[in-house]
Amino acid sequence: MPEISIIVPVLDDAHAAARLLAGLAVDPTVELILVDGGRDSALDTLAEGRPDVSVIRTVPGRGRQLDAGAAVATGEWLWFLHADSRVPDGWRQVFTSETNAGGGWFRFALDSPTWQARLLERLVRWRVRVFRLPYGDQGLFVRRAVFARLGGFGQYPLMEDVAFARRLLRAGPVAEPVLALTTSARRWERDGWLRRSLRNLSLLALYGAGVSPERLARWYEEPRRR
To answer: pTM above the 0.90 mark?
Structure first.
């Protein structure tokens, strides 16, 4: 029986998922669940020859995809990763050493050598320390029983990580390992470091002001559609 279920929502991003899987060796105590929000046959190819990897499909939307993966997961721990994440060495020890925490998150890091990346990493650490507000690209993890008690992520197309992290914090002790989960800087490089960061902050502020996640998701996807 797996101890850890790694759940990865994917939407037209098989290349990133392939890189993520390449950094995760086959381990009988770990299962990997790719949740396809489309119909990407490349994900089935990735799963071939990997008995630890399964592919399931659902309608697109990160909250829905994450909940769908959790519904079939069998591990005590559920670890939610973005497809463009890179796991740090020693990550396995985080789950074996945590005995009291109901969940937690990793540190944020970017795979860019630029000063903008280092500044953004420091700002994220400040945001998490002061506002207790981690994002999904920090690899949220939670015990399966706690996840069920919190009701999962819900039908959120965006901001599902913010809403869930708030509930997780209220549920009891959380773990904040010093290990950093590395995220691709491709979106900041594509959109511009300042523009992307301000856009993310604007979406968060609008969400806090009561704008629906559905409307925010449409605004979030608009630049990519263009």
So the answer is: yes
